[in-house]
Amino acid sequence: WPSPRLEPFCFVWATYRQQDVAYSTSTIDLYRWLVEATAGDTTVKAVVLAQAGSGDYTTYTEYGDDFTLDPGESHDGDVWVPNGNVQLGDRATLNGNVYTENGNVQLSDEAQINGDVYSSGDVQLYEGAIIDGNVIALQNVQLGIGAIITGGVCAGQNVDLYDGAQIYGDVYCAQDVTLYQDAIIGGDVHVYPGANVLPEEQVTGDIYEDYSGCGLSTGGGGSGIIDIQSWQIS
Question: What is this structure's pTM?
């Protein structure tokens, strides 16, 4: 797009690409762009999630093949890993949203992400870890002993909550939901017909066999429906 500050030193363009997760709402879509800015021999890439017709957007800075925080380390800013994993060491903190295009997200003991998590693979929280936001994963979501997700969860495979783990929001799961001793889901659970939710009494809300995607608030602004099965291009 034209910008007097960028020209003639920098060329900026956006390209639509196949999404791991399709974002849409009943009225407007949440689009994903890969944006590249080039100046001389230097190229900077970022992913932008933005709702059409709105001014709200989230920009994810690219971080090589993997993004790792050492024990106790802290990072501020959104993270996009196009071909690798996000790993937080014990008590590490990431203040921002996370997007993995081809990898997993792992939080070691008492690590914390203050933001939403989008993963093409698994999302795994070890003992006492916290995600203060929503979690969207094409594969499994696993919460270790005492781990917490303060938002909702959407999983393309299974959701497991070990002893004392908690999900405060709704859960949308294509396969089984298993809660171990004293684990709690604070919202409703939506699964495919025939999938297991056990034990049911540890779900505070209602249980529905009506899974067809999931509605969660996203880091890009507004509410969205994430249809894991369609793999459509928004």
Answer: 0.73
Which residue, among 171, 186, 179, 176, has the nearest Cα to 226 in the 3D structure? 171
Asked if 92 and 110 count as a contact pair (C-beta separation under 8 A), the reply is no
Half-sphere exposure of 46 (CA within 13 A, CB side): 16
CA angle 135, 51, 101 (to 5 degrees): 45
**What is the CB neighbour count within 10 angstroms for residue 183?**
22
Neighbours of 181 (CB within 10 A): 12
SS3 assignment, position 200: helix
Q: Are 57 and 221 in contact (CB under 8 A)?
A: yes
CA dihedral 204, 167, 24, 197 (to 10 degrees): -60
From first to last of its 234 residues, the chain has per-residue pLDDT tens of 333 333 333 333 333 343 333 333 222 334 455 555 555 665 555 555 544 444 444 556 667 689 999 999 999 988 888 889 999 999 999 999 898 888 999 999 999 999 999 888 999 999 999 999 999 898 999 999 999 999 999 998 999 999 999 999 999 999 999 999 999 999 999 998 999 999 999 999 999 998 876 655 444 333 333 333 322 222
Q: Which of 134, 129, 146 is nearest to 171 (CA)?
A: 134
Q: CA–CA separation, 204 vs 182, rounded Å?
A: 12
Q: CA nearest 156: which of 85, 80, 81, 227?
A: 227
- Give the bridge partners for 57, in sequence order: 50
Backbone angles phi, psi at 69, to 5 degrees: -110, 130
Dihedral sign, Cα of residue 177, residue 134, residue 168, residue 91: positive
